Amino acid sequence: MHNSHRHRWLLLLACAAALFVGCAKFRDGSWWPIGGPRTDHVPGVVSPVERKERIRTLAKQAGRASPADVERIAGELAAQFRTEDDPLMRAEIVRGLASVRTTTAGDVLRTAIDDPDTDVRIAACHALSRFGGPDAISLLSQASAADVDIDVRLAAVRALGQTKDPAAVAALGRALDDRDPALQYYAVHSLQEVTRENLGNDVDRWRQYVQSGQVPSERPVSVVERLRQQF
Question: The whole model's pTM is what?
Answer without folding.
Answer: 0.72
